[in-house]
Amino acid sequence: MRSIFRALRGLCSFAWAVARSWWVFLGEEGVEADDPDKERES
């Protein structure tokens, strides 16, 4: 049972790291969702 929780925690950590890396790779930092002009200036 503990190994299942450990595996899930590791998988979530890995997914979080991949998501953050992808976000930084795309350069989407500082863009607010309610500002369509900033979103169009990619």
Summarize the structure.
This protein is an all-alpha fold and 42 residues long.
Would you kindly provide a written description of the structure presented here, covering whatever features stand out?
The protein is elongated. The mean pLDDT is 79. By secondary structure, the chain is an all-alpha fold. Helices cover 71% and strands 0% of the residues.
Number of E strands = 0
**Gross geometry:** elongated
- Average pLDDT taken over every residue: 79
The ordered string of helix (H) and strand (E) elements is HH
Query: How much helical structure, as a percent, in the residues?
Result: over 70%
Largest sheet: none
Secondary-structure blueprint:
Elements: H1 2-26, H2 36-40
Which key phrases capture this entry?
about 40 residues; mainly alpha; 2 helices
